[in-house]
Amino acid sequence: MLDVNINKQLPHFLLDIAFQVEDEILVLFGPSGAGKTTILNIIAGLEHPDTGHILLNERSFFQNGHKPLPTQKRNVGYLFQDYALFPHMTVAHNIAYGVDKKAQAEASLLINQLVEVLGIPHLLPKYPHQISGGEKQRVALARALATAPSLLLLDEPLSALDRETRLECQKELLRLHQIWKIPFIIVTHDLDEAKKLGDRILFLEHGAVRTNR
Amino acid sequence: MKRTFRFLILLCVMLIPLGCSNDNPSSPETEKQPDPVQEVELMISAAASLTDALDEMKPLFESEHPDVSLKFNFGSSGKLAQMITQGAPADVFLSASEKDMNTLQDNNLIIEETRSHFTENELVLITNKENPVSLTSFEEIDAATVEHFSIGEPESVPVGRYTKEMLEHLGLWTSLQNNLVFGSDVRQVLTHVEMGNTEIGVVYASDAQISPKVKVIATADADWHEPIVYPGAVVSESLHVEEAKQFLTFLTGDEGKTILQKYGFK
Amino acid sequence: MNGTDYTPLLLSLKVAGISTVIVFVLGVFFAHVFARRTFFGKGVIESLFLLPLVLPPTVVGFGLLILFGKKGWIGSWLLNWFDIQIVFTWIGAVIASIVVSFPLMYQSAVAAFENLDTRLENAARTMGASEWRVFWTISFRLAWPGLLAGLVLSFARGLGEFGATLMLAGYIPGKTDTIPMAIYFAVESGQMEKATFWVVIIVALGFSTIMWLNWWSRRNMRRYKNDVG
User: Fold this and answer.
1) Average pLDDT of each block of 10 consecutive residues along chain C (229 residues)?
2) Looking at the structure, do residues A112 and A166 belong to the same domain, yes or no?
3) Helix, strand or coil for residue B217?
4) Does some domain include residue A119?
5) CB contact under 8 A, C228 and A97
6) 3-state class of C189 per DSSP?
7) Do C227 and A46 touch (CB under 8 A)?
8) What is the pLDDT of residues C128-182, one digit of tens each?
9) H-helix segments, chain A
10) Quick check: is A135 in a domain?
């Protein structure tokens, strides 16, 4: 379970939010500039809150008066907006990037399974600039899950896709969540998508929760 | 009616400046008139080593010749000769080497009969004043005790050419090969000794004279190298030959000699 | 030209080569540390870094003499403790070359790192990569075209360095006579044939280095293009 309770002064408003996520899909919904991406960055440890706490399965990521746990040790999967695939590496290398060299044998099993589930074995030798948007999204998903994270953060995972691919990928995400059974936090500004994907939706505005459904 | 009146006022206002300028007519012109003699400006192209001496001569000469004012163009003799060849304005050429003066003479760029040696210079062995070496003469220089010895580059810098002749005459040139550091001009040789990067160096007596940070160990005998003479001459293109000759006379006269000696020339 | 002494060529390559390696490491390090950070005094330090670019070579050379001369602050210390002499040695030429080419490397490297997409580095971090691994496998690789441009510029600048070198390393035939020095003194002493020979060599060297860089970047740039999204 993820327990988040954070405060952070942003240039235009105060980010003040508290929520808990079980092994479910939580959608952070709101207009752009509502602080959604900042929340993901704070959970991932790329930014830090002013005060508050973040706990994942009893492990402390952040706590007042303590040094924040570095990103590298949080074991959080993060699907960036526009995917942030490494342009100079093949798809295979992108996916295997986060895999510990010593645990290669176990990991390759996981990667094979992931690649099969996402239907991307034929993409492995290609470079990111040679594949389509939908393909990139799958590769990025595979990459984020290859480290066997205990939490997956997704920032606008479907916004770059055309309508058809988007519907397909929504199913894909739901299916993956069924298999993985870890907390997913999805950021989106598309209400239909939020309703379709989310077990719960947090409506954000100016850094605070508006209504809880 | 009112409009015409306004127009008249405007006209008057516009005329005021004209009136003003007519009130005190031509005061600058009247000042100039009692001075019909044109002031002559002499351009002296001189070797850089003469800078201080010539700067001291300037007010003296100008007070004796009120109608002449001096302008200097200092540089290395080779460069100045080149400039004169290419038509740069100059009335007098004061060179630190005969070679460059000969080049001009061969091309008829100087008036031959005005050419004369106005001074001489000597080579001196110098060391740093605060960290002197224990040498007392050129003959004592030894590759084993002196690590770095700065001299002018022998092919391109006149002082280097004389230094090489001298070292060859003393039989030191070959044995010192690994200790020599070549400077691109006399100033650099001086800097190396002043900063203590080379223990000794060879420069003109006049250069050693003006540096407070170096000490002269020894002066080279005149017959160890070609004489270091400073030839001067009036440039053929000069429009003020008379005044130029006056300046050369002044330079070789008592006043000129005294000042040159004060700055280390012979 | 029979019996040409090739030491200036070898010495120039040695001096420019060694200085380029050092400048590359220093430039990349400082650029990476400074590129995305702001702190008090950063502007002052950066101005100091770039100063040799605008100062006349003789001023740089004089400053280096004050630092590295036998009686200089660093020079005397090196001499007393390690018996290393800088003035009038090829090491002096390397130092002069480092100082004048560092600004070029630093500027290229800062631009290269500033243009990187931080999300790529952050993505690597979320996958557990250490800071060193992020730098080596992501930042450095993606900044490489810019870094290479800086490297080539630094090498070319080092190859052509004259003014500061002449002051710090002096002119000692066979020991510190790099190609630019050989050219200068050949011209000054009227040996035009010798001067022309070295001019042709150094122009060919500089030209081919820059040609090679252009060719290389046209061939490889596409792979480095950051086409996320």
Assistant:
1) 75 94 96 87 91 90 90 86 87 94 95 92 93 94 91 91 90 88 85 91 90 82 51
2) no
3) strand
4) yes
5) no
6) coil
7) no
8) 999 999 999 999 999 998 999 999 999 999 999 998 998 899 888 888 889 999 9
9) 36-44, 91-96, 104-118, 133-145, 163-180, 191-197
10) yes
Say if C1 falls within a structural domain. Answer: no
Q: ipTM score here? A: 0.89
In a domain, C2, yes or no: no
> Is position C108 within any domain?
yes
> What is the widest separation between alpha-carbon atoms in chain C?
66
d(CA C198, CA C206): 12
Residue C67 sits at the chain A interface (C-beta within 8 Å): no
Pairs of CB atoms within 8 A across B/C: 57
Q: Tell me which residue range forms the domain holding A113.
A: 87-147
Same-domain check for residues A153 and A207: yes
Specify the residue for token string 């002196």: B146
| Tokens of residue A42, six digits | 């704070």
B93 Cβ contact list (under 8 Å, min separation 6):
B45, B46, B80, B81, B84, B101, B104, B110, B232, B233, B235
Q: How far apart are the C-alpha atoms of A153 and C159, rounded to whole Å?
A: 52
In a domain, C57, yes or no: yes
In a domain, A81, yes or no: no
For residues A118 and A103, state if they share a domain.
Answer: yes
How far off is chain B from C172, nearest CA to CA, in Å?
5
Q: How many domains does chain C have?
A: 1
Strand order in the sheet with A25-29: A77-79, A152-155, A184-188, A25-29, A200-205, A208-212
Q: Is C148 on the interface with A (CB under 8 A)?
A: no
Are A163 and A203 in the same domain?
A: yes
Looking at the structure, tell me whether residues A112 and A169 fall in a common domain: no
Contact: chain B with chain A (3+ CB pairs below 8 Å): no
Q: Do C126 and A77 touch (CB under 8 A)?
A: yes
Which structural domain range is residue C78 located in? 7-224
Please write the tens of the pLDDT for every residue from A170-188.
888 898 898 888 999 999 9
Enumerate domains of chain B plus CATH numbers.
Answer: 41-120+229-262 (3.40.190.10), 123-219 (3.40.190.10)
- Name the token pair of B139: 């003959």
- CA B128/CA C76 separation, integer angstroms: 16
Residues C8 and C169: their CA atoms lie apart, in Å, by 14
Report CB contact under 8 Å: C228, A83.
yes
pLDDT for B27 equals 44
* Residue in C70, C166, C172 nearest the CB of B184: C166
Paired tokens of A193 = 């998508």
Any A CB within 8 A of C229 CB: yes
CATH number of residue C143's parent domain = 1.10.3720.10
CA atoms of A14 and A8, how far apart (whole Å): 6
- Against chain C, the chains showing at least 3 CB pairs within 8 Å are A, B
Domain count, chain A: 2
Query: Cβ of C123 and A73 within 8 Å?
Result: no
